[in-house]
Amino acid sequence: MKEAVARPVAVCFALLLLLAALSAGATTITIMNANVGLVGFNDPTPVAPVAGNAGITLGQQRLNVFMAAAAYWSNRLVSSVPITVTAQMIPLSCTSTSALLGSAGPTDFWSDFPNAPRPATWYPSALANTLALSDLDTPTPEIAAQFNTSLDNVPTCLGGIHWNYSIGGVAPAHTLPFYQTVLHELAHGLGFLTVVNLTTGALAQGQDDDFEIFLEDHSTGKTWGQMTNSQRMTSAKDTGDLHWTGPHVVAASSILSAGRHPSGHVQMYAPSSLEIGSSVSHWDTVVTPDELLEPFATTDAQDLLTTHLLNDIGWSLQSTACVEAADTACLQSGRFEVKVEWASSAANGSGQVMIFNGQRAENNESVFFQFFSPTNFEMGVKVLNACVAPFNKFWVYTSGLTDQDWTVHVRDTTTGATQVYSNALGHLSSTFADTSAFSCP
Amino acid sequence: MNPLIVLAFWISFGTPGSHPAPARNQNIVRVCSVATGGCQDFASRLLEPSAAGGQRVFIDPETRTVVPPTHAQIEELSVTITESTKRGELSVETQRDGTKRLKSTTGFNVDQTAVINKQEKKP
User: Fold this and answer.
1) Mind spelling out the 3-state secondary structure of chain A?
2) Which of B102, B97, B54, B62 is nearest to B79 (CA)?
3) What does the pLDDT average to over A153-162?
């Protein structure tokens, strides 16, 4: 018995040492699970797997969602300094008609730190660390988040509406999408918010913040930094005229069909009646296609601008170009990056683009992959341009001659959208066609 | 550290083989536990799904599904989820090198609240 216990301890210790050596050169987001005991993220209640989430306990499913949301941002933003999110799921207030779902945001704001791009300007902790190339306060996490377990545990809470823990799926009736909620809230924690007092229009302690400096009121042509407190108060309620002017958003905004000024500026949420927490710190609801950081959830919201806004406020983005490599194919003139991860019962790795007579088995639309041997075809992917009426989509097809576990990641380098397709170990691959995979143009 | 707790933590992550350890220079999601003090790393690329979403949710009272509301519908839908912020007392801490830290007695969190609308259905 003693040996049986000691072995996993030794494995854990070795793993921790290994992990410490792995962290260089990549963005790491650490989820600090603050739940203690068999509650929250550690809740052992058995549950059935849901779409995109194979967790078989309630706690595991919750944690899987948090991990997926953290992965989303770590795959887009560059930070040599790890970003720590302290997270817990606990009972919060809830009645049959009202519930505090959760709470998240930056722990602090910083200014005039080493390498600060702009003096006398507040930056949220995670971004300030990234720009300073060091953790300005190591013991304190950069983002704090907590969400309400009562939706799962108290039958009367919110009339029985509960969290849905699917990842990448659509929340069914009578549920709230936890993944979308966490993804959205982490964006606020990373800096998608202003600390201007919207009730008074006053800057925080008299200083600009890195979000507010890109706001402009089109009716006056003034930026928020140029306004008086009174003018900012008015601008926060100037529906349709409150604009984001950051250059990266402007460069990307041509993809919008609504919510965009001819100059490329994009409308921010400014209802005529001030909504503290929603006003200003979200995209306007008229923005089309629906955007991730709009104040209303929609089932088809995309991140076409939000990552670019984070770029505007100071985050560097991960390289978006598709770079051809042994394990990477670039289809449709390089717009779509295709990678494959595989796993057998004994090993795992990245799928390799096959070589036929010295040439990559890849053209503008299709690619073949091998897992174990250069001559052993395992699976293939094709991306077709169906950007004509009535289809108006890029289509993705996958198929294989294998029963190994594989996961295909197709990334649209233009929009940042990603689609993932999988085959389970022991299941002979079947052909799959996704005719709504990616938006045009 | 209690070895049994470590064991429980280890088991709680299910089958590590389904998430290969990340290679060098990959983006990472690290999951740590206050309870156990242990951490485990996962390659971000393998965790990310394909969809994203917004925040305030409206649920249609008829279908009980999430829908994008029009302004007119907002008042008629059954659940409204709003975000709010509390702004406590702000203070600035200045460090020796000139770095300033803005703190709030309430933090800078964005709170989310869901409310079931009690409005009568219009004829």
Assistant:
1) CHHHHHHHHHHHHHHHHHHHHHCCCCCEEEEEECCCCCCHHHCCCECCCECCECCCEHHHHHHHHHHHHHHHHHCCEECCCCEEEEEEEECCCECCCEEEEEEEEECCEEECCCCCCCCCEEEEHHHHHHHHCCCCCCCCCCEEEEEECHHHHCCCHHHHCEEECCCCCCCCCCEEEHHHHHHHHHHHHHCCCCCCECCCCECECCEEECCHHHEEECCCCEEHHHCCHHHHHHHCCCCCCEEECCHHHHHHHHHCCECECCCCCEEECCCCCCCCCCCCCCECCCCECCECCCCCCCCCCECCCHHHHHHHCCCEECCCCCCCECCEEEECCCCEEEEEEEECCCCEEECEECEECCEECECCCEEEEECCCCCCEEEEEEEEEECCCCCCEEEEEEEECCCCEEEEEEEECCCCCEEEEEECCCCCCCCEEEEEEEECC
2) B62
3) 90
Q: Taking CB atoms and an 8 Å limit, are A298 and B100 in contact across chains? A: no
Cβ–Cβ below 8 Å for B28 and A294: no
CA distances from A169 to A2, A165, A173, A386, B49 (A): 44, 9, 13, 24, 9
Minimum distance, in Å, between the CA of residue B123 and any CA atom of chain A = 23
Q: Please report the pLDDT score of residue A304 as a whole number.
A: 83
**Contacts with A60 from chain B: Cβ below 8 Å:** 12-14
Could you report the per-residue pLDDT of A30-75, keeping only the tens digit for each? Answer: 999 999 999 999 999 999 999 889 999 999 999 999 999 999 999 8
The 10s digit of each residue's pLDDT in A5-38 is 333 333 343 333 334 333 334 899 999 999 999 9
Q: Which of A82-96, A143-157, A287-301 has the lowest mean pLDDT?
A: A287-301
Inter-residue contact A365 to A332 (CB < 8 Å):
yes
| Token reading at A328 | 């990477």
Distance, C-alpha A350 to centroid of its chain? 23
Determine contact: B81 vs chain A, CB below 8 A. Answer: yes
More reliable by pLDDT, B61 or B77: B61
Mean pLDDT of chain A: 89
Backbone angles phi, psi at A150, to 5 degrees: -65, -25
Q: How many CA atoms lie within 13 A of A75 on its CB side?
A: 22
A153 touches A93 (CB < 8 A): no
pLDDT of A26 reads 83
For residues A147-161, average pLDDT:
92
Q: Is pLDDT of A235 > 60?
A: yes
Q: How far is A241 from chain B (nearest CA, A)?
A: 18
Contacts of A37 in chain B (CB under 8 A): 35
Of residues B38, B20, B64, B71, the one with CA closest to residue A161: B64
CA distances (Å), origin B109, targets A183, A185, A280, A382: 15, 9, 15, 44
